[in-house]
Amino acid sequence: MDAVKIALAKGRLADDAITLLGKIGINFNDYSKKSRKLIFKDDCEKIKLVFVKSSDIPVYVEKGAVDIGIVGKDVLLENEADVYEILNLNVGKCKICVAGFKNYERIHSRKLIIASKYPNIAKKYFNKKGIFNEVIKLNGSVELAPILGLSDVIVDIVETGTTLKENGLVVLEEIHDISARLVVNKVSLKTKNEEIEKIISGLERIV
Ligand code: PRP
């Protein structure tokens, strides 16, 4: 039987995910944060951990290049994919919010310019509210956009709130609670059912 492949993104969520897997007896003793290696085998050589950019995880899982993904709900909302979302892992908790300058008054009164790493989420949110909008896709340091006059507001992840605070911005509206989810390829759930169910039920018990 092929190893079960699990996709993770490097960063805070990876540490939480590896800790959770450790608690159910899946250990990656050769894993090191500093390593540039992209694939690690667990100690029993039954599971492979694959490091992928977080926004690419849904497509790797949908296409069956990996069997399982551990990924933030923000990424799943932004990059809709045909996968089973099986479990809320209750780690990596944050919120996706509209943020900008305090007392931003013009939010409902004219074409709103929004900067975001999440253009689909932003567009959907403001379209649903019936607000005429233009979304500018950025790839990071989104907080700069209202400060430099590139946009009126931003749509971004807020975890501790430190980045907003240190840049003189505040949350204006909350869009969605976010946490890490376990997603599974639809075919793998049948073909590797026993191994995958074991991982799911193990994680279910501890989250
Ligand atoms: C994320 C997000 C915010 C920040 C929020 O950025 O886009 O900028 O974290 O976290 P906080 O509320 O705890 O301050 P990330 O660290 O991924 O960097 P990036 O802006 O380069 O994408």
Overview of the molecule:
The protein has 207 residues and is an alpha/beta fold. It folds into two domains: 117 residues, D-Maltodextrin-Binding Protein, domain 2; 84 residues, 3-Layer(aba) Sandwich (D-Maltodextrin-Binding Protein, domain 2). It is built from eight helices and eleven strands. It has a six-stranded mixed sheet with strand order 2-3-1-4-11-5. The protein has a five-stranded mixed sheet with strand order 8-7-9-6-10. A hairpin with a 5-residue loop joins strand 2 and strand 3. Bound molecules: 1-O-pyrophosphono-5-O-phosphono-alpha-D-ribofuranose. Heteromultimer composed of HisG and HisZ subunits. Its EC number is 2.4.2.17. This is ATP phosphoribosyltransferase.
Tell me the overall shape. Answer: elongated
Helicity range:
25-40%
CATH superfamily of the largest domain: Periplasmic binding protein-like II
Distance between the termini: 28 Å
Per CATH, the class of the largest domain reads Alpha Beta
Looking at CATH, which topology of the largest domain would you report? D-Maltodextrin-Binding Protein, domain 2
Identify the bound ligands: 1-O-pyrophosphono-5-O-phosphono-alpha-D-ribofuranose
InterPro entries: ATP_PRibTrfase_cat (IPR013820), ATP_PRibTrfase_CS (IPR018198), ATP_PRibTrfase_HisG (IPR001348), ATP_PRibTrfase_HisG_short (IPR024893)
Family: Belongs to the ATP phosphoribosyltransferase family. Short subfamily.
Main location: cytoplasm
Protein name: ATP phosphoribosyltransferase
